[in-house]
């Protein structure tokens, strides 16, 4: 049996993974239900999968933060302490992550092998280009979008699905957090 792979991403309504300007993390829309939900999701046994760019961003962000900062929300601390696989052709070890394995080479081959060998589910938070590639290869079982109630038309950064293939999405779970943030979980199928 192969491990389930979830592409987990935060998004503005207009499809950006982040924003510049005066937006803060979570676009300033995090609430207790969102933070509790994230901690519960990351409390489950699983393996994280990151591309090189996302690994670098997380490692730099966490290294420069304090325990009291928003960056160190309990779910983020939990994520950092989960076993992780970083897929990269540019990074060299050792990695600044407690339990990380660096895998070089083709991402599709590496993740296909990981899905076959992993005894626990796989989850990737962010890693946009990696996950677009994995979706096109049919390796993503679930796309979990946490949709924040903002439009970042002028300041949006990191368009999540820019350049992605076309997909049909089957909604398999949904919930509203803090009365305004949507968590949507889809099963993607390449649209042919």
Automatic annotation (TrEMBL):
Domain Bacterial bifunctional deaminase-reductase C-terminal per the UniProt entry, residue ranges: 6-178
GO BP: riboflavin biosynthetic process
Alphabetized SUPFAM superfamilies for the sequence: Dihydrofolate reductase-like
InterPro entries named in the record: DHFR-like_dom_sf, RibDG_C
A Pfam family per the record: RibD_C
Gene3D superfamilies listed in its UniProt record: Dihydrofolate Reductase, subunit A
Single GO term (MF): 5-amino-6-(5-phosphoribosylamino)uracil reductase activity
Protein name stated in the entry: Deaminase
Organism: Actinomadura craniellae
């Amino acid at each position: 049996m192969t491990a389930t792979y979830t592409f987990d991403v935060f998004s503005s309504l207009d499809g950006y993974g982040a924003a510049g300007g005066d937006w803060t993390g979570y676009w300033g829309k995090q609430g207790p239900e969102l933070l509790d939900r994230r901690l519960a999701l990351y409390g489950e046994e699983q393996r994280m999968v990151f591309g090189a760019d996302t690994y670098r961003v997380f490692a730099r962000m966490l290294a420069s933060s304090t325990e009291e900062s928003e960056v160190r929300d309990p779910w983020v601390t939990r994520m950092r302490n989960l076993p992780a696989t970083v897929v990269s052709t540019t990074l060299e070890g050792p990695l600044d992550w407690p339990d990380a394995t660096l895998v070089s080479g083709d991402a599709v081959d590496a993740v296909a092998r990981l899905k076959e060998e992993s005894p626990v589910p796989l989850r990737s938070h962010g890693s946009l280009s990696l996950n677009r590639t994995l979706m096109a290869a049919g390796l993503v079982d679930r796309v979990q979008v946490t949709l924040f109630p903002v439009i970042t038309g002028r300041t949006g950064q990191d368009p999540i699905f820019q350049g992605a293939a076309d997909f049909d999405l089957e909604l398999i779970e949904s919930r509203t957090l803090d009365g305004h943030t949507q968590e949507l979980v889809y099963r993607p199928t390449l649209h042919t």
